[in-house]
Amino acid sequence: MMAVLQTVIDDVHGSAHRRAAGHEGPADRREVERARDYIASTDRSWPFSFENVCEAIGIDAASLRRALERLLPAPADL
Questions:
Q1: Between the CA of residue 60 and those of 4, 9, 19, 41, 46, what are the distances in Å?
Q2: pTM score, whole prediction
Q3: Sign of CA dihedral 77, 69, 6, 51
Q4: Residues contacting 55, CB < 8 A, separation 6+
Q5: Which of 40, 47, 64, 74 is deepest in the core (most CB within 10 A)?
Q6: Cβ burial, residue 4 (10 Å; 0-12/13-18/19+)
Q7: DSSP secondary structure string, 5-16?
Q8: 16 burial via Cβ count (<10 Å: 0-12, 13-18, 19+)
């Protein structure tokens, strides 16, 4: 579940590898949009939903959602 969450963070913020190479932000607009949809969803029907992953690893989903949304580029900026 940590890997799922790390992938979403990388899709939002750009991976640590990309940042270390001097590239700011995410690599692919589609990844950002998928991450945006995943983070925004409160559906718990899928075991690896954002809400379920956060709960399983002990992170407050609402707080993490707000933090990640601040990192997301505006749709017009993609």
A1: 16, 15, 26, 14, 18
A2: 0.77
A3: negative
A4: 61
A5: 64
A6: middle
A7: HHHHHHHHH--H
A8: exposed
The SS3 assignment for 25 reads coil
**Tokens of residue 68, six digits:** 């990640």
Q: What residues have CB less than 8 Å from 15, skipping those under 6 apart?
A: 27
The whole-angstrom distance between residue 46's C-alpha and the CA centroid of its chain comes to 16
Task: List the domain boundaries for the chain.
Answer: 2-77
Amino acid at 70: R
Cβ neighbours of residue 76 under 8 Å, at least 6 residues apart? Answer: none
Position 60, amino acid: D
Query: Considering the chain, what is the average pLDDT of its residues?
Result: 83
The per-residue pLDDT for range 39-67, each reduced to its tens digit, is 999 999 999 999 999 999 999 999 999 99
